[in-house]
Design goal:
Blueprint (H helix, E strand, L loop, with lengths): L27 H11 L17 E6 L4 H14 L4 E4 L11 E3 L2 E2 L2 H14 L5 H15 L4 E5 L16 E4 L7 H4 L3 H8 L8 E4 L4 H10 L2 E4 L11 H16 L4 H8 L9 E4 L2 E3 L5 H18 L7 E6 L11 H4 L4 E4 L19 H4 L2 E3 L2 H9 L5 E6 L2 H13 L2
Parallel strand pairs: 1-5, 1-6, 2-5, 6-7, 7-8, 10-14, 11-12, 11-14, 12-13
Antiparallel strand pairs: 2-3, 3-4, 9-10
Helix pairs in contact: 1-4, 2-8, 2-9, 3-4, 8-9
């Protein structure tokens, strides 16, 4: 069964697969392209450094948790009675998921019309660029009150860094996308701080001299978040994410009880999600997120499930092509068997050879399986085996699609 995870996964979107080009992702050219579009003679904000919108923007960046916090904020505003746009990446099952209003994906026909509009206007447009243009156009047409924009990779030159936001969020900082953001913690944090604005609050748990310096330089307002909030999502790290969302919603005037109810009733796919009682999928795909997942598995799941007589703990793992497998060895040690695979997305890394460089203690418990064989393995898994599927959002998407299409 071939479940091709192209950019679209929607065969009727005839323009999408022409845009599978991430050359400008996270680079100045992409941000400037969108600004130049809005600074053309056809728009009121000619010459501005920001895109003027009819809606208020909350901008969210970070290494881990930015998609979750974006959705928490959007849902909190929606539950408080506002009309709310949400822009996130990547998608799990359909490209429509990236652009939502009040928890509903953009309609396929409306998306196709907008894609065609901008593709015909700019035949060489990049994937990240067209999605931002489509989102702004769609949210404007539908007259949303707020729009929550999650960054792509999240830096000074991110394609989404074009708004004079009413609130900014940095969720966490770790080593990821170093080829775009810098090799050190400080360099990455400096890049992420590119979203802050004068007289606009920044909400973050991070305390670092780089933040103090940049906030003072820009004239932003630093809000150090300490709050933890209960949520129905699993893991202590989700209580931290919920705490940031809570503080943003409080600042925006949402009532306490409304926010807390919203955070206890949120549905986000691929976050410690059980597809069987003994199989979970999780979108953790960088060191920071995988350390949080490891902590949850060790402290909660594996310990609780000792009484269930799981004789074997199995990991199914894939990564994107700019990452090195050795970065994640700390995570592999807790499993009895490791199955490396390659997701169907175009930027997935082929791990057939790489894991063979491990020392024998890891290499001897590792194998490589093509994605079709991974599906078969998951279908036939025994009740006494516990399996975790993670390392790549696109691997999780592949597995979720398979189980949706075969059920």
């Amino acid at each position: 069964m071939n479940l091709d995870n192209s950019i679209s996964t929607n065969s009727n979107f005839k323009y999408i697969d022409k845009l599978v080009n991430t050359t400008h992702l996270g680079k100045k050219a992409s941000k400037n392209f969108v600004l130049n579009h809005y600074n053309s003679k056809n728009f009121k904000n000619k010459g501005n450094n920001y895109v003027e919108t009819s809606f208020k923007v909350i901008h969210v960046t970070g290494t881990a948790g930015k998609g979750t916090i974006s959705k928490m904020i959007a849902k909190g505003l929606e539950d408080a009675g506002f009309k709310v746009g949400l822009f996130t990446s990547p998608h799990m099952l359909r490209v429509n998921e990236r652009i939502q209003i009040n928890s509903c994906n953009i309609d396929s026909k409306e998306l196709e019309v907008l894609l065609e509009k901008y593709y015909k206007l700019y035949p060489n447009i990049m994937f990240c660029e067209i999605l931002v243009l489509v989102a702004i156009d769609y949210f404007t047409q539908k007259r949303v009150d707020y729009a929550v924009f999650e960054v792509f990779v999240g830096g000074e030159f991110d394609t989404t860094n074009i708004f004079n936001s009413v609130a900014c969020v940095i969720t966490s900082i770790g080593l990821d996308h170093q080829h775009l953001l810098g090799e050190t913690y400080e360099e990455i944090l400096t890049q992420k701080l590119g979203i802050i604005r004068k007289n606009v609050p920044l909400f973050t748990r991070i305390e670092h001299k780089v933040i103090g310096s940049k906030v003072q330089e820009i004239g932003a307002i630093y809000n150090k978040v300490e709050t933890l909030c209960d949520t129905n999502l699993k893991g202590e790290f989700q209580r931290k994410n919920a705490g940031i969302a809570y503080e943003v919603l409080k600042y925006l005037g949402v009532k306490d009880m409304s926010t807390r109810n919203s955070l206890m009733n949120i549905l986000i796919r691929g976050r410690i999600e059980h597809i069987k009682s003994n199989i979970i999928v999780d979108c953790a795909h960088n060191e920071l997120a995988l350390r949080e997942l490891k902590l949850y598995l060790e402290e909660k799941l594996f310990q609780i499930n000792q009484d269930l007589n799981y004789l074997k703990k199995t990991l199914i793992f894939a990564i994107s092509n700019y990452k090195e497998l050795k970065e994640f060895k700390f995570f592999f040690e807790m499993f009895d068997t490791i199955i490396f695979t390659k997701s169907t997305i175009f930027k997935a890394k082929d791990l057939k050879e790489e894991y063979l460089a491990f020392e024998d203690s890891l290499k001897n418990k590792s194998i490589f399986l093509d994605i079709e064989k991974v599906y078969n393995y998951l279908e036939k898994i025994e009740n006494n085996e516990f399996c975790v599927v993670t390392g790549s959002v696109f691997l999780v998407a592949d597995v979720l699609k398979y189980f949706e299409y075969t059920r």
